[in-house]
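ASSEMBLY PREDICTION REQUEST
Request ID: AP-0331
Submitted by: J.K., bench scientist
Number of chains: two
Total residues: 271
Priority: normal
Notes: Please return the full assembly, not individual chains.
Input sequences:
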Amino acid sequence: MVSEILIFKTNIHAEGDVRKVAQLLNSDLHVRKWNIDRDDIDRVLRIESDDYNPEHIIHMITRAGFRCEELLD
Amino acid sequence: MRTRDENKRMAICQKALKMIVEKGFDGLSMQKLAKAAGVSPATIYIYFKDRDDLIVQLWTEEMEKMFSITLKDFDPAMPFDEGLKVQWMNRAKYFMDNPVSMHFMEQIKYSPYHHLTIKHLNNTFVTTMGEFAHNAIRNKELVRLPLEVYWSVAFAPLYQLVKFHMSGRGLRGGAEKFVLDEKIMNQTLSLVLKALKP
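STATUS: Completed
Returned structure:
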């Protein structure tokens, strides 16, 4: 199956933030791999998913209290 | 669905190499790279997880290119002097044609990335080089030495000459231009072969 790659600009930065988000993403059935580039100014969240559904991710992350918007290429 | 575009990826890689060589690892950020390559940051993240991933992928690809050029017309069963000559010609050609890559690989060697990249080293190349040396030892064409000593004698003289050549200067400074030609290469190679004989 082809992996969809979703890219988001966030404000997830501190270790604790990442742990919080990790719990959500690790238990999501569609998310295969993810990482947050905390060195980047946009704190980019990159997700490999088997389902292209950015709204679902944005909803999940913002409900946890973070900013999250999709970055388009 | 996002599709991969190999041309875009290649443009990103080329710009990234240039940035690292000109400004060092700290001079490379995804944002600056996006601007330089004329793409959006999101595009870069399609191909690379983060900066470290980008650097490791760059290194792996440059090494693969170097390996394939180095192994051209080479066979580990060749007589030692012949094989080493092919190696010298190929390696010199690769570095002279790719000065940016050579610089980048030197930067990696002396940076914390060395530990990250070394895990991705191509095994075929390492095995082929090992086979070549072991054949030569068995055929009494090469003296048995610790690997680092062997490498330093067999290849470091060439690399130093290539560096002189690429900087355009020898040891006597700016006045005299140093050019690594075939005559100098053969002269040095014959000294190296003499040193490595049992």
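REVIEWER COMMENTS: Chain B touches chain A through 15 residues (CB under 8 Å).
SIGN-OFF: pending second reviewer
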